[in-house]
């Protein structure tokens, strides 16, 4: 039982779960636009996400020698392996896809590492974090598969991009509610500025907007609409019951599983 618990912690804190969510959204793009499975895009998205998130969390261990527990050392080792695999899969992407990937992962690097003297990374820029993360998620999970498959970016693609962007913002806001007591006040997160209650109202408004975007498609897919309804309802429930007193796994496992749940609904209703 203890071994299973340790494996679960490695899965969560090693960013394998969040990488699964990114992969789920990539597979959703394939399903929605009728794309064949592309192993290079899938592997690059999964391994690139795993390494990026772990580098953001444990960047000091990558750059300097520090004492760390066994679990952290395992995570750093797996992250290094993920970087190598992501690098290999990168060379199997189309040239335009490689350029697109560099742009989005470049933003991730700026988020973590200050490239210029006497400057902060994007993570410490008040109010920027939420938009950078949402932009990267939407770009990696939607733009990358479409560009690699040479699918033109139609109005439907822009609508789907907007939905992904909004969903990630909503999920981040739930994280910020849970982390309210621990976040540095200088981060000026949305809950810090407007309070938990107003943040929840904002989240519910964004979810409603995300849902109604589906009605603007050239051809309305009622099966997709049904899947979106269930996903929006589940996310709304997580929003309503989010409080700073909730345990970390409320977001680290359950909230981050929303994209995986959404993929399951799309396949079920599709």
Automatic annotation (TrEMBL):
It comes from the Bacteria. The keyword ATP-binding does not apply. The chain crosses the membrane at residues 7-27, 33-53, 74-93, 99-116, 128-149, 161-180, 201-219, 225-242, 249-269. Keywords: Membrane, Transmembrane, Transmembrane helix. The keyword Transmembrane helix applies. This is Prenyltransferase.
